[in-house]
Specification:
Length: about 280
């Protein structure tokens, strides 16, 4: 089946001399694809056709520390049920894209310094491919976000830009000449692991004072979990804040200010203020 077909005629293009141009469009009947995002606390899935129309979106909360095998089985079950409910032919599934909150090598291997430490050394393409029996493409979530922004979002029409992601961790992507710069091991845009305070808190990557330690949401969630005596997720914080919980509201307020406080520029300003106070 052809992927590109003739589209509907429009009157928006001025008539030129000669043979009229034929409008083309992507064929929604040419197949479907599945996008999966593996987060620390949930698995998100979307089904779309070749024309980029989203057919279904679903999010499943999972226990922290879930295994790659568990994630692959969950995705397989969701896909099987979703295709049945939507009346889609599973044989028309062309491939699956998987994004993960951490650096991923070009071959699909999860690296050491990431938000899912038990997945270090796991080849997502191989594990998910064996379970789903479809081609699987894996990459870092920020790299995937950069591609999406370049095609549909704020970076549409731009070939050179930087994306900064603030979430449970801190990540990013660098795009040059329309291509994501991944680096040798997939960590080209890992801004979160740039040390801005040499004597700062210990980061899971082994360094101290990383940007992620300074402004990442994970640190605040750990504080909330300690205070409330149970594991607190970002969804819990949102629900608690909407119900008037003062601790949750204060956490959100703190997180709003923390990116500026943890920036290198702010750090340099603090040093200058301290130096001035000391008469240096």
């Amino acid at each position: 089946m052809e992927i590109v077909i003739e589209g509907p005629a429009t009157n928006s293009t001025p008539r030129a001399i000669g043979r009229p141009a034929t409008p083309l469009t992507l064929n929604p009947r040419a197949g479907t694809c599945v996008g999966v995002h593996l987060n620390q606390q949930d698995i998100r899935l979307a089904i779309a056709d070749v024309s980029h129309s989203v057919i279904l979106e679903k999010s499943i909360e999972v226990e922290p520390g879930y295994s790659p095998q568990c994630a692959a089985a969950v995705v397989r079950d969701i896909v099987t049920v979703a295709y049945g409910v939507c009346g889609l032919d599973i044989s028309a599934l062309l491939g699956v894209g998987v994004s993960v909150c951490g650096p991923v090598s070009p071959g699909g291997m999860v690296q050491r310094a990431n938000g899912m430490p038990t997945w270090a050394g796991v080849n997502i393409s191989q594990i998910f491919g064996a379970v789903l029996e479809k081609p699987v493409f894996a990459d870092n979530e920020s790299n995937c976000s950069a591609l999406a922004e370049m095609m549909w979002g704020a970076a549409a029409g731009y070939e050179d830009f930087v994306l900064l992601k603030l979430d449970l961790g801190v990540g990013g992507a660098i795009v040059r000449n329309g291509k994501v710069i991944t680096g040798v091991a997939g960590g080209g845009g890992e801004f979160g692991h740039m040390s801005i305070e040499p004597n700062g808190g210990l980061c899971r990557c082994g360094n101290r004072g990383c940007l992620e330690v300074q402004i990442g949401v994970d640190r605040s969630l750990q504080e909330m979990s300690r205070l409330y005596g149970r594991i607190i997720t970002i969804y819990d914080v949102s629900a608690m804040a909407s119900q008037g919980d003062v601790g949750a509201r204060r956490m959100i307020e703190d997180m709003r200010n923390r990116p500026a406080e943890g920036s290198p520029l702010s750090a340099r300003s603090s040093i200058r203020r301290s130096s001035s106070s000391a008469g240096v």
